[in-house]
Amino acid sequence: MLETALKGSRKYWGLVFFLLSIIGVGFIFYLQQFFYGLGITGMSRDVSWGLYIGQFTFLVGVAAAAVMVVLPYYLHNYKKYGRISVLAEFLAIPSVIMCMLFIFVDMGQPLRVLNVLLHPTPSSVMFFDMLVLSGYLFWNILVGWTILGAERKGIPPPSWIKPIIYIAIAWAPSIHIVTAFLYAGLPGRHFWLTAILAAKFLASAFASGPALIIILCLIVRKFTKFDPGKEAIQTLGKTITYTMIINVMFLGFEVFTSFYSTIPGHMHPFDYLYVGLDGYTKLVPMMWLSSILAVIALVLLLNPNWRKNERTLAVASVAVFFSLWIDKGFGLIIGGFVPNMFERVFEYWPTIPEAFITLGVWAVGFLILTILYKIATTVKEEVVYDKYGEKQVKI
Amino acid sequence: MSINRRQFLKIAGISTIVGLGGTTAVDLLQRNWLEAAQYSPNPKALTAKRWAMVVDVSKLKTEDDYKKIMDACHREHNVPDLGNPKDEIKWIWKETYEHAFPGQEHEYLAEGIKHKPFLVLCNHCDNPSCVRVCPTKATFKRKDGIVMMDMHRCIGCRFCMAACPFGARSFNWKDPRPFIKEENKEFPARMRGVVEKCTFCYERLAKGLKPACVEASNGALVFGDLKDPESEARKILRLNYTIRRKSELGTQPSVYYIIGGNDHA
Question: Which residues of B touch A121 (CB under 8 A)?
Fold first, then answer.
């Protein structure tokens, strides 16, 4: 099937080369980081994780979110998702790859990364995170490829793939739960030391991921003959409505516990993020932007007429995605480090090389996504009717 | 039975995977602590079942008292002076009471304590969260309680820095060598991209010497074996009211502080 990625329109190649050029720029900055050290980033002794680990955390969620499509389809036989299950799986693949790359670019000694395998340490959550992430990547490649291959040949998928699909479904939440455990078990980091963290991670994953799938479905429909289906998109819209409500509620729970108990260690990170602490306010505009986007998204999603209109649904999806990207890809990590262990505020802001390396990794992800989606849509365009006999191609 | 090439490759591939998985499983079952081996232990080496330190703050009076201690450590261990708080590397340094013991301070605290600097360093916890989270065992606890760093194994993921509630760990954000004033050739300098911290002068203990900070402290820092009731550290702990940093977190720090001005043996 890979050959279908080698034949494409001008626009396709334009996108591929555009992404390659961003990857190139990111790679040059990475070389600089490689030879100088992580000192070229904004990270410091006090805020020792930053944008990279934030992106990793956010993208684990996007990867896990494929289950929001795959589960209703395979476990509840929700036929409308039949067409887009491969799109969801093919989103999980670049997401996990980006996760791995973000971990890699965050390493102080990247050439020693295999020490994690050479000296496996089951007491470290990072060891398990590596296991679940690689497992999830493998299952998704296997399932996505097999299902799409069968569809292309017009035959039902082989029976051995069924148990693997079930494993992949059960596996999906695990990658995000384990990622939450990276943070939720650390003594002294009050912002992270909360049992609700894993639940919060899942809620934000199951909102931001499907929001991105909606956006991708709309793009695919615009630029290819393949139609993901109006109803599938609408159902995803309902999913992000509920999960976004849960997100806002979880944030509210945290705020209540912190500010009703008035325990300083629990209030300080929230103070820092939303109003500033000791006069330091670098993150405040970002966090309020995230909140405003969340409100906009909820207003658009909760009104059924707006949700049913694909234009407003698209705006809502973009708002959900960026709201949660700021909240998790940025605020969550920095809030754990500010104030520091001495109750002092030391602020963090990414540097230009750090931003370009981040952009480069995203470009790698989008390049893989573009290629996988090119393959998927080409196959879908050839197969005019989906397996339920409905036309899956626009005329 | 004859097999074709395809079958052969399949069997070979599966056997390789199983083989690699097998060795990993054996590694996993190994116990989770390590100790650096010495070929011929020095008979004069200082040994203990559980090393600990007591900081008697009342004995530290002048700026110079602090400086001597910090300089002794940082010179001995090639700790660079990077000159900015972002990249800073420190093994032992000063914090005021409210920052060393956050949550313990109050408005009406005695002036003498409020502005008094406290020496802080790695607590060599009995239940160290940094060791628990390290994905490569690059930081590990020795049998004598010292929480050690293997700078050659560290991958620089900084999970330990997130896990340490005492901010005791520093990361080499860039090559530290140009920032070392006079290099001590007896102790290795670090490279960029690894985490470092106080090691209770394991290298001096092995030679029968007390930690550099203790030696430079004029009796303000006392080092000893917690498991030995007759050790100097235990005697002081018996006679004085001592506190530890953030003991409520359960990491069991091994550095104790005497706040008040009691005379002790």
Answer: 32, 134-137
CATH code for residues B51-258: 3.30.70.20
Contact A191, A337 (CB under 8 A): no
**Cis omega before residue A120 (within 30°)?**
no
- Give the pLDDT confidence of A321-373 residue by residue, as tens digits: 999 999 999 999 999 999 999 999 999 999 999 999 999 999 999 999 999 99
Within a domain: A391: no
Banded pLDDT at B13 (limits 50, 70, 90): confident
DSSP state of A279: T
Do the chains contact at A48 and B158, CB–CB below 8 Å?
A: yes
Q: What CA–CA distance (Å, rounded) separates A378 from A371?
A: 11
Please report, in angstroms and rounded to a whole number, the separation of the first and last CA atoms in chain A.
24
pLDDT the model gives residue B138: 96
- Quick one: tokens of B264? 């002790």
pLDDT higher than 60, residue A132 = yes
What was the pLDDT predicted at A297? 97
B179 in contact with chain A, both atoms CB, cutoff 8 A: no
At residue B26, does pLDDT exceed 70? Answer: no
Residue A390: inside a domain: no
In chain A, the number of structural domains is: 1
Portion 58-97 of A in contact with B at CB < 8 A? none
A394 belongs to a structural domain = no
- Structural domain harbouring A161: 2-382
Decide if A123 and B163 are in contact by the 8 Å CB cutoff. no
Are the CB atoms for B189 and B163 separated by under 8 Å?
A: no
pTM confidence score: 0.91
Give the number of A-B residue pairs with CB atoms closer than 8 Å: 151
ipTM: 0.92
CA A316 remoteness from chain centre: 17
* Within a domain: A392: no
Residue A113 belongs to domain with CATH number: 1.20.1630.10
Q: In this predicted structure, what is the pLDDT of residue B1?
A: 57
Query: Please, are residues A213 and A290 in contact by the beta-carbon 8 Å criterion?
Result: no
Shortest CA distance from A104: residue in chain B: B157
A289-331 pLDDT per residue, tens = 999 999 999 999 999 999 999 999 999 999 999 999 999 999 9
| CA A307/CA B263 separation, integer angstroms | 75
Q: For residues B224 and A89, give the distance between their C-alpha atoms in angstroms, rounded to a whole number.
A: 59
A388 inside 8 A of chain B by CB? no
B117 touches chain A (CB under 8 A): no
Cβ pair A107:B156 closer than 8 A: yes
- Rounded mean pLDDT, B34-43: 66
Mean pLDDT of A204-218: 96
Shortest CB distance from B167 goes to which of A117, A122, A340?
A: A340
Test A113 with B155 for CB contact under 8 angstroms: yes
What is the 3-state composition of chain A as percent helix, strand, coil, each rounded to the nearest 5? 75, 0, 25
Lowest mean pLDDT among B35-44, B74-83, B209-218: B35-44
Test the B interface: residue of A40, A44, A119 with most B CBs within 10 Å? A119
